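Example 3.
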Amino acid sequence: DTAVSQTPKYLVTQMGNDKSIKCEQNLGHDTMYWYKQDSKKFLKIMFSYNNKELIINETVPNRFSPKSPDKAHLNLHINSLELGDSAVYFCASSHRGAGGHTEAFFGQGTRLTVV
Amino acid sequence: AQSVAQPEDQVNVAEGNPLTVKCTYSVSGNPYLFWYVQYPNRGLQFLLKYITGDNLVKGSYGFEAEFNKSQTSFHLKKPSALVSDSALYFCAVRDMGDDKIIFGKGTRLHILP
């Protein structure tokens, strides 16, 4: 059973298009994240949701819009794609317990290529 | 704001030798510290964490890490390296009570046969 799953795994699209990436976790966690990994492998947090509420938005362009229909899902919609959006996008989840969050578990990533 | 530094872009170790991958951190409160490994074209796999308690924590695949509060370090170690350990290793930190994990830039580990 895959704990954190993302679809699609690969996404090739033209500039200006709108695309979505879906993420689901079956770990019962209450917090989900989107991270972006660039070509130099730097990992940068984009968004974090806790119990469907946005709690972190790290100065990401408003062309990126996350949506969390329930605690187990966090989707990422990107409008008007640009060349610079090409990267690997990782979804992750963790649980906020009494002592703070657990470690985060990551999906396999979605490699987005904008041409 | 918290931050993580991995001073080495790459570490080369001969198979069978001990390995160390360095990490230092900065947080305003008590740190939660993590190590993750990324194999090519794969996601990040959790290796180990320090929350509280013993300064030496053991994790997956024979890896361990030592928390040093005075030096604000959390170096990853393994007594005997395997070629299959070759991968990209990330140190990460969460400030207690904070909702985000901040990652270092990663260290590429090459184990030479």
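Chain A has a mean pLDDT of 92. Chain A touches chain B through 29 residues (CB under 8 Å).
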